[in-house]
Amino acid sequence: MNADSQQLPVIACVPDAIDAADRESHFELARTLLSSCTTSRETLSNGLAFRLPPNSLEAVARFVANERKCCPFMTFDIKVEPNGGAVSLSMTGPTGTREVIEAELGLQGRCGCQ
User: Fold this and answer.
1) pLDDT band at 7 (very low <50, low <70, confident <90, very high)
2) Could you tell me the domains of the chain?
3) Beta-carbon contacts of residue 81 (< 8 Å; ≥ 6 apart)
4) When you count CB atoms within 10 A of the terminal residue's CB, does the N or C end of the chain come out lower?
C-alpha cells in the first residue's frame, strides 16, 4: 500500500450508538466525571488524561462501556492505584481526538473540581 492509498483514521462520534433511554444520563455522567469530579487533568498530544477519586471506579467503567460505542476511534485506559488509591482515565486516539473530547464535554479551560 502506498502513501496515497493509506486512509487516515476517521474521527466521528455516533451518539445514536448509545440507547436513547441511556443517552442523557451518559452525557451527564461524562460531564460529572470529567469536570467536577476530576482532581487533575493532563493534556496529551493525542487526547486527555483524568485523575479521579478512588470511589469513581464503577462510574468510570460505566462511562467507558457506553463511550466506546459512540466514539469507536478512541482508546480508553483505566488505571487503578493500589491500596484504594486514585483512578486514572486516559482517552486517546488519532489527531484531533483531544479537541473532540473538549468540544463534546465543554472542557476548554476547565481543570479540577469546580
Assistant:
1) low
2) 20-105 (3.30.1360)
3) 54, 87, 88
4) N
